[in-house]
Amino acid sequence: MTPSSAALRQSLRPRTAFGRLRRNRLAAAGAALFAVVLLLALFAPYVSPAPEDAASAVHPAEQLRPPSLAHPFGTDELGRDLFTRVAFGARISLLSGAVAVLAALAIGVPLGALAGYAGGFWDEVIMRFTDVVLSFPSLLLATAIAAMLGHDLANAVAAIALSWWPWYARLLRAQVVGLRQREFVEAARALGVPGWRIIWRHLLPNALAPVTVQASLDFGSVILTLSALGFLGIGAQPPQPEWGLLVSTGRNFFLTDWWYVTFPGLAILVTVGAFNLLGDGLREILDPKAGVRA
Amino acid sequence: MAAYAGRRLALGLVVVWGLTVVTFLLARVVPGDPAARWAGPHATAEEIERAREELGLDRPIWAQYGLYLAELARGDLGVSIRTHQPVRDDIRAFLPASLELTLAGMAIAVVLGVPLGVAAAVREGRWVDHLTRVLSVGGVSMPTFWLAMILQLVFFKELHLLPLSGRIDTMTPLIHPVRTITGSYLVDGLLAGDWPVVRDAAAHLALPAVTLSAYPMGLIVRMLRSSLIEVLGEDYVRTARAAGFAERVVVYRYALRNALAPALTVVALTFAYSLTGTFLIESVFDWPGLGAYAALAVLTNDYPAIVGVTIVVAVFYVGLNLAVDLAQAFLDPRVRKGVVR
Q1: DSSP-assigned states of every residue in B93-152
Q2: Domain A3-286: which CATH class?
């Protein structure tokens, strides 16, 4: 393949795939749901009835009120507006989820590139190590690491990154192995370009696309794990309005005050569901065999 | 087959050895001085020094790792800080309840997931498919601890159909003593033919098991749907149709058999995952299992218990992984010849 036709395909493919993505109903539904959550997070201070309730405000007269016009999601045991807390919780979930995924990429991508490019001994060592980390169920490993590091949101994010990176290392290695023998890499090597530069300038730009797609789809699972750690008490701490923590606190009142657990949980469901729908839509588009009637 | 099995087994051993390294590192990243923690909050400097010697913490790190391996080899997982019992005994006491719950959850997931997956694939694009998609996406996107409470609200508080929590009514074992054989009230009751016990145990098991089944069911439906759709497009399926076989025969006898393999892998792997899932729901249902034990351990910084549960569940997971790979190699010659995967 000549470089110009490769460039042409590079420039054409995203556009057509994006076009197909827009026409896919699953993906559209997922994108719409995500947009709602994203807007909620961005404009939390403006759409919330009581922005000060995101932290540790107390309103003794308003404790545990059911949903009403003033408090669409009701209030909690300190009289704080739950809609406000869920809206600000969206900021925590989206931001921590993004940091966790980026950190996992920052570990997994270099290791995968090194394993794929170097081959031999380093490949074996790195890939067997990823096998070991992957042989823990991810929630178990994240829980254990977060519990060991100490209970706070930053540690929970680190724990998720530390249990998640092997997926990206594996995916990137596979890409690099596929690219390593291509002419443009061999040409660079014949010209005496150093290894790190070949990886950086020639391999990574061509290998990153599938990893990026996978990482953005994993966002949902990461947010779900984050809420699980919050629920277990080893993630975000009060008074942070993290969704899992809200459900956990609401557990003390849920049989009498149903709204307390219901709305934060729905927020998790909608956000994670958005990414799963997007992922399903994407798979239908990229895999021509799926989604076409036999 | 033997060569493949040998290779796979060797890799399994490497992974288990790696697990010991990772859990050892895990126990080492704990902030603070483990000797001081072991000696207690009011210990003098001498007592802390003595604890350091006793725990072998004064020795070089590789010697500590050797010590750790030797303890593991004897099945010694240390002593729980919270219960003051050997972690091994704690796990042995709490594991049966979790296994009962996990098995029940997996059974529900398979019994509902397989027909739903088939229906969605065969009627692709119709309303069954859409309904199934809502269920399966919901299942994998829902926080299980939240689903647990929603089910309690509906079936306990509103409908008064099922008990809120626990494994059995406190009175039931007193009125109907049943000999413990498997450690599961449901199975022991069935073995004894004692229906009140069976009914009570099943009623208590229903909500936690359904909660636990949501995630694996969603996965099974999604996997089975996509693999069956792919198989239904194969030439031999077209041939079978052209030969005039009934659609039911084509789907169930020819296509499903080939589409099940990936779904079976998912079933086996989500089994160990569900065991971790019990961390999140056992405390909600007051289910006295490993998950509730682990959830308390992480809250109370019971480090030996955390590491112990992590090792046991991880080894379980590795074993299942190995079993799945061997089963697939046995069923599919392409796997052991290294043609696929």
Answers
A1: HHHHHHHHHHHHHHHHHHHHHHHHHHHHHHTTTSHHHHHHHHHHHHHHHS-HHHHHHHHI
A2: mainly alpha
